[in-house]
Structure formats: structure tokens, C-alpha cells
Design brief:
Elements (H helix, E strand, L loop, with lengths): L14 E3 L5 E8 L5 E7 L4 E2 L17 E2 L2 E4 L1 E5 L3 E8 L6 E8 L4 E5 L2 E3 L11 E3 L19 E4 L34 H6 L1 H7 L3 E4 L3 E3 L7 E7 L6 H13 L3 E6 L9 H9 L41 H18 L3 E4 L7 H14 L4 E4 L16 E4 H12 L5 H14 L2 H4 L3 E2 L9 H4 L4 H13 L3 E5 L27 H16 L8 E8 L4 E8 L2 E8 L5 E3 L7 E3 L4 E3 L4 E3 L3 E7 L2
Parallel strand pairs: 13-14, 13-22, 14-17, 17-18, 18-19, 19-20, 20-21, 21-22
Antiparallel strand pairs: 1-2, 2-8, 3-6, 3-9, 4-5, 7-8, 9-10, 9-12, 10-11, 15-16, 23-24, 24-25, 25-30, 26-29, 27-28, 27-30
């Protein structure tokens, strides 16, 4: 047994409180090394005087009491390149838990505890074992339930639809009349969104994530001038409220983008610092190293990256904190927004985010808090800061496999399994999955403009654990390179839209709605991955049913073997399959509901 690879710690994501009565426990072992993992568990105060019946324990004749344990097999829930991951959900009767692991590799059986390894399980002291002291309700990670069923649509406001030319800024170009640049404007606004609500409903969208709408100089609005004012090019506060109300009436939630890491160059506080230097009352609002302030060749103050126009806030300062927390509460209370997406969230201190969560959840306990973090985000996902982060590890794995041909089936399944293991199931159910955004080249462009590969990307996005987001236009074949190319105007002429791709996306959204297991009711695992054929089968299972999602990511027809015996309903062709062996044309996929 390769003991060095066996790992568990009594903390997230290895053990966590899933709900008010259930604890999830995970274990990591060397890939292919362990044949069976059994959880040894019990209440730490449950002792008995009779010797246990089995021989798998350390008998000490001087002891009169022995810990009473149970043994329950764990499931191998997934694997990556190096490790197998084991999972079990337990419901301790008194909400207390001590536990360890009995592992077998076919040659030997050993017990793994917090204090190390034993040939037999020690029962004279619960201190050997990992501990969940008590399952307190307040400690359960709780994200809004509605997010699990939400399919988001990301809108870059200037480029979605121009509904009111009267608020167009000077120099606004006719719609879609030129390629996007870092400075040009096309007049997209709130009225344009209102005008296209029927389109969003027809597609099946249930949430909109808006890139920043606050007053700013740029076309992207990530250089905020005033967090309490709408940029005039999008409309008024009254028009914004009208749009939010209309979207809500059509079952569509609203999430705004906020940049609390840094302000814009023309924010009144930074203007005052630029004008008054060390004497400015806002001097300590920013991280300033010297006076006078300079922007070239490098700013002598902290910024986002090294962009002089984006000076970094000192969020530890009481006045800055009070100001930004007021902003967070204001838009929730006054306009009824349903969530915040937080830009550059990893560079803001954790103490600020803890207060942010308190303020936002007090205003609306069901508000969704999403952080932009591109790396391992466990520190932000323990229940006291964010509900979720943007799932860029998912993005990378999906694009590398389906679009860029950098990996093959086994690597894709391994990467996705690692993504699932990296966060708790509570987080996985609401994490923000994407295949492209305003910060990346378009997914279709990454796929070499191959629409069949784009369909596979959408199939993977809309059937994986999490809350998926479609970047505006992806559903009708919009392409584009890295920013600014990925920020084209939405084409509204039907002849410029790929309506077949639209109907495909629409069908997937309808399936998520009709089959809740595909929308985070159940668990996700990979039951087939074959590099030779470059095919994958993903399994989604819950108490409502079992589903298999098939992917043929090859340039030829392939027959994928049945993952289990039985028959099923093909949700794409709406036909009954007598076997779960599926033959798929090149670069296609399907979903089959098990009917046995």
C-alpha cells in the first residue's frame, strides 16, 4: 500500500457539513492502489463494556470500555492523473463524529487515523480519530438554492442591444458597423435589454450577469467613477429599475459586476489625491508610495496590474470600507438586484469580504455572491465570504479537450474529476461555469469555428455540476479573438445568426429544466474515458434518476460501450434505446436517461 499518497485532513474540502444533518467525507489515495475504503465512524461518547465481536481492533485486557464504531464502505467518486478520490455521506445521530479509514489493497489492510497508521483499529481512545466536534446549523455552507437551477447570460452592456439612441454618447457608431476596439462605443443600453426580453425567455435564460453599469470613462466600465450612479449611456436609475422589474417578471434574476479592488482614475477620491497630494483627505484611501503621483514609466501607487487608470483601494481603511459596503447594500435594497459578481476578488482582504457578506446577506439572505478568482479559491469558499467563484479550471479543461485538442479523453475526465474534488459539493452546485467571457477569446474561435465542437462545449457546460453562464452571442455563433475582439455587437438580423445552434442551446436549457438531475440535483462522475476513440461518458445521478452524457470528440463515427446494463431514453432523438451502447457521428454527443 502506497501510504505516502493517502491524505485527509479534518477540514474543507475533505470533510464538511453538507446540510443540517449530513456530513460529507472525502479521502485521497494513489490512483489504482486501493481496492476498498471503509469509513470507521461513531459518536465520540458512545462506549460499551463488552468486547467487540470482530477481530479488527486493538484488544487491551486492562481496559473495561471500548468505543462503539460502525463501518460503512466509501465510493470511489473519481480519479485524476495521480489520485483516486473516495466519498461518503453520513448522518451522525447526535451530530457529533469521530472517524477514520480502513483501507485494503488486496495484500494488506490498514487503518488510517489522524495519528497515523495502525494494523488494527484502536478502540481505547477516540483521540486517535479525525473529528467533527458538532454539526452546528450556523456552520453549514448555505448558498441560495435558486442558483442551482439558474442558467446565466453574460451581457457586455454596450454591445447587446441599442434600444434608445437618445442616450448614445457623442461619437457612438451605428450598430455593428465596425469591429470592436478598446475605445469605440455602439450604444447598447437597458432599453435594448428590455426590447429583447422575449429573446432571452425563448432561449431559456433565468439569470443575467451584467458587466459594470456604473459611471466610468471607458467602454468596459471597470474604471468606476461613481459606484452610486448609472452611466448615462445605459439609461437612468428609473430605466434600470424598470428593466430589473421586467426581468424579474419573466423569471430572470439580475447580477451586477462591481470592482471593489480598485477605483477609476477619475473617481472623486483619487482626483482629490492627484490634486492635493499628501494633504488630501483621501490620502489613505489608496496605497500610495510617494508624492507627487506619477504614471510613467510605472505608477508609484498600487493599481490593478500596472494600469495607472485603476488605483487600488485600501479596503482596510474604515472610510473606504464603509463607502463600499454602502454601495453593496444600496443596489440590493433599492433596486432588488439578486447578486454581485466581484472583480479581482482575490486581491481584496478577507476581512473586507466577511463584512461584505454580512451586509449583503442582511439586505437579502438569498443574494448570490460570486468572486472572480482564476486559481484555487478554497480560502474564499468556507461559508463566510463567497457563495462561489468563476470556475476557470472547468473552462481550461473543457477548452483544452473540446476546442484546442491539447488533451484527450482520459486527461479531460481526470481534470474534471479534480475540479469536482477541489471544492465541496455545496460549492460545486452553484459554482459559475463558463467557456468564455469578455476577458477571453470566444469559445467558437477557440474551437477553430467548428460548430460541432462548439456544440460539444455547450453540452459539457450545460450538463456539468454548477451554475452555467452563456456569454452573449455564443448561442448564435458569435466569434471573436481576445479583447476587444470578443466584445462584438450582438447581431440581431436573423440571417446573421446561426439558428440551428440557437435551437441546440435552447434544447439543452429545456432539458436542464425538465430533468433536475442535470441541474445540480445529483452527483457527477465519469464512467468512461477512452483515449483511442477520444470518447467520454459522464454520469449524473440523484434520487430522481440516472443520466449518462456521451461525448464523441473525434473526427469519425464511434460506438461507445454501455456504461451499465439496461435501456434508456435518448433525450436528443426522443427515442428508446434498447441498450446503453451508443453510436455517435464525429464531434457529437447525446444524453440518455436510464430506464431500467
Amino acid at each position: 500500500m502506497f501510504r505516502e499518497a493517502v491524505f485527509h485532513r479534518a477540514m474543507s474540502p475533505f470533510v464538511y457539513k453538507y446540510d443540517e444533518k449530513t456530513i460529507h467525507i472525502r479521502l485521497q489515495t494513489k490512483k489504482g492502489d486501493i481496492d476498498e475504503a471503509i469509513l470507521i465512524w461513531g459518536d465520540p461518547y458512545d462506549w460499551h463494556t463488552e468486547h467487540p465481536d470482530d477481530n479488527d481492533w486493538n484488544f487491551d485486557p486492562t481496559k473495561s470500555n471500548y468505543w462503539n464504531t460502525r463501518e460503512t464502505p466509501m465510493a470511489r467518486s473519481g480519479s485524476d492523473d495521480l489520485y483516486d478520490y473516495w466519498f461518503i455521506a453520513v448522518e451522525p445521530p447526535y451530530r457529533r463524529l469521530r472517524y477514520g479509514f480502513k483501507l485494503s489493497d488486496g495484500n494488506e489492510t490498514l487503518v488510517y487515523t489522524e495519528r497515523g497508521w495502525f494494523e488494527t483499529k484502536p478502540l481505547d481512545d477516540t483521540g486517535y480519530y479525525f473529528c467533527v466536534p458538532f454539526l452546528n446549523k450556523v456552520d453549514v455552507f448555505k448558498a441560495p438554492d435558486w442558483v442551482k437551477d439558474t442558467v446565466w447570460y453574460q451581457i457586455f452592456p454596450d454591445r447587446f442591444a441599442n434600444g434608445d439612441p437618445a442616450n448614445d454618447p457623442e461619437g457612438t457608431l451605428p450598430w455593428n458597423s465596425a469591429p470592436p476596439t478598446t475605445t469605440n462605443l455602439f450604444g447598447g443600453d437597458f432599453q435594448g435589454v428590455i426590447d429583447q426580453v422575449d429573446y432571452l425567455v425563448e432561449l431559456g435564460i433565468t439569470g443575467i450577469y451584467f458587466c459594470p453599469i456604473f459611471e466610468a470613462k471607458s467602454n468596459h466600465k471597470y474604471d468606476t467613477i461613481d459606484y452610486l450612479e448609472i452611466d448615462p449611456q445605459f439609461g437612468t436609475k428609473e430605466k434600470f429599475k424598470e428593466m430589473v422589474d421586467i426581468l424579474h417578471a419573466n423569471g430572470i434574476r439580475v447580477m451586477l459586476d462591481a470592482v471593489f479592488n480598485h477605483a477609476g482614475f477619475h473617481h472623486k477620491a483619487f482626483v482629490d489625491v492627484r490634486e492635493n497630494g499628501d494633504a488630501s483627505v483621501y490620502r489613505d484611501w489608496f496605497h500610495l508610495r510617494d508624492f507627487p503621483l506619477v504614471t510613467e514609466p510605472m505608477p508609484n501607487y498600487d493599481t490593478f496590474a500596472f494600469v495607472p487608470e485603476m488605483p487600488k483601494f485600501n479596503t482596510e481603511h474604515p472610510e473606504v470600507k464603509a463607502y463600499l459596503l454602502h454601495v453593496a447594500k444600496y443596489w440590493v435594497e433599492e433596486f432588488g438586484i439578486d447578486g454581485w459578481r466581484l472583480d479581482v476578488a482575490n486581491e481584496v482582504d478577507h476581512a473586507f469580504w466577511r463584512e461584505f457578506r454580512s451586509v449583503v446577506k442582511e439586505a437579502n439572505p438569498e443574494a448570490y455572491i460570486l468572486g472572480e478568482i482564476w486559481h484555487d479559491a478554497q480560502d474564499w469558499l468556507t461559508g463566510d465570504q463567497f457563495d462561489a467563484v468563476m470556475n476557470y479550471p472547468f473552462t481550461s479543461a473543457a477548452l483544452n479537450y473540446f476546442a484546442l485538442d491539447k488533451t484527450r479523453a482520459v486527461s479531460y475526465a481526470n481534470e474534471m474529476s479534480h475540479v469536482l474534488f477541489s471544492n465541496t459539493e455545496n460549492v460545486n452546485e452553484v459554482t459559475f461555469n463558463l467557456i468564455g467571457s469578455h476577458d477571453t477569446p470566444r469559445a467558437l474561435t477557440r474551437a477553430g469555428n467548428n460548430k460541432n465542437k462548439m456544440r460539444l462545449l455547450l453540452l459539457s457546460l450545460l450538463t456539468f455540476s454548477g451554475s452555467p453562464v452563456i456569454y452573449y452571442g455564443d448561442e448564435i455563433g458569435l466569434d471573436g479573438e481576445q479583447d476587444p475582439g470578443c466584445r462584438k455587437c450582438m447581431p440581431w438580423e436573423t440571417e446573421l445568426q446561426d439558428r440551428s445552434l440557437f435551437r441546440y442551446t435552447q434544447h439543452l436549457l429545456l432539458l436542464r429544466k425538465e430533468h433536475r438531475t442535470l441541474a445540480n440535483l445529483g452527483l457527477t462522475s465519469f464512467v468512461h474515458a477512452d483515449d483511442e476513440t477520444n470518447t467520454v461518458v459522464m454520469k449524473r445521478v440523484s434520487h430522481e434518476g440516472t443520466y449518462f452524457v456521451y461525448f464523441n470528440n473525434s473526427n469519425k463515427e464511434v460506438t461507445i460501450p454501455a456504461p451499465v446494463d439496461g435501456h434508456g431514453m435518448d433525450l436528443f432523438s426522443n427515442t428508446l434505446r434498447q441498450t446503453l451502447e451508443v453510436t455517435l457521428p464525429a464531434f457529437t454527443g447525446t444524453i440518455v436517461q436510464l430506464m431500467r
